[in-house]
């Protein structure tokens, strides 16, 4: 009888109580790929960053892959060796990342990957054959069939004729990748690649997740966001998307990428959904959110706070124009480096129309905040972060890791503005949230967050000592200190 290769996903026992922040699953990748745009920036096997005192060495044969050690080079050979031969013979061949991932996966399956079993607990396990493919939906989708056909020229180069699957089998593999793959994140939570994890594929989606996925190198870690008296895997949920979006957009995204519709508590919350499309009350003494229906037959509801029904005649037309403009820019958004002037204009145009809790307003302000931080405009960034604070908390919830990341960003901005006491308060709040979602061993927590806590604590201590020694005159307001610092640097530049 043939022995089956078996990899055990580390999980808690099914009958053991689980607390918020506890690890409920760790899994190693079944197949993985680093984005081609990041080749040379990360190790191809462990995804260690070249920024962290690691010297990456190029593959001696093809020059396309980079590794941080001889061990990673050796462990990567089952995935890389066939690609390496192709790249040596065709040095200018640049296949798409999706074609490379499919080719790696097909080779893995032909080399015995079909027999690999990842055990989740004593009762549950997963093989590649167990993954959902949604073959019928993929076959009936013109978009997906056309995309697979566009990959065939690259696949014919990466795979030998006898390795290339028949069309039906290829569509099945493509569907399993489409539905079950994870976006790999580095220690800064930046997307860097794609991977399939057999064990983690068992976890379904909810817009209100009770578990959170993080990565340590190429290892996937799932932590609980709630307390479980008795862990029930049938009720564990992670989120496949960004919760800060309208119900219509979330449902459309889920069906397009995963072929299902969500019926979670968030998707049934009509009151929350109405807040995503709101304008500011027309009364001069009220700033409440008022629902505006974007549809052709829609209108503006009366204000629930003051009863105001007086709105300008062109409000709905102006709202639809600004909403369309914002959505167009969001479709083209570079999340890591948004264009400052573009988003400054978008946010300014929304000012007199959108309510701060309007989801398009929140997304636009968040993009402008990122662009402003990238340009080191700390004073403007602080005003934007405070403006968007309530919206981020509303859409993600006060205990979600994404809100914790926002608090971490806000605290960094406050430190740059010398608002030390509020920075310390937000860092302490972020610490509790991020330790539950990412774990205390995640680099973003034990490195970035802890050093910022030390800095904020020390600066706050010095500030308190000054106030005790010299009174209020000995402690400058952050704005005064910032203006003094800017004047000091301007004087130095003029002298130089």
Any overview of this molecule?
This is MYND-type domain-containing protein. It is a single chain. By secondary structure, this protein is an alpha+beta fold. The chain folds into two domains: 6-258, set domain protein methyltransferase, domain 1 (Alpha-Beta Complex); 397-496. Helices cover 47% and strands 11% of the residues. It is built from 15 helices and 16 strands. The chain has helices at 70-89, 97-110, 135-140, 142-158, 167-180, 247-258, 270-275, 315-331, 340-350, 359-374, 378-396, 401-416, 420-437, 443-470, 478-495, and strands at residues 6-8, 10-11, 23-27, 31-34, 57-58, 66-67, 117-119, 125-126, 181-185, 191-196, 204-205, 211-216, 219-224, 237-238, 278-280, 289-291. A four-stranded antiparallel beta sheet has the order 2-3-13-12, with no helix packed on it. The chain has a three-stranded mixed beta sheet with strand order 1-7-8, with no helix packed on it. It has a three-stranded antiparallel beta sheet with strand order 4-10-9. The longest helix has 28 residues, at 443-470. The N and C termini lie far apart (81 Å).
In which order are the strands of the major sheet placed? 2-3-13-12
> Taking Cα atoms only, what radius of gyration do you get, to the nearest Å?
26 Å
CATH architecture of the largest domain: Alpha-Beta Complex
Tell me the number of structural domains: 2
User: Helical percent range?
Assistant: 40-55%
CATH class of the largest domain: Alpha Beta
Number of strands: 16
Mean pLDDT: 90
| Global outline | globular
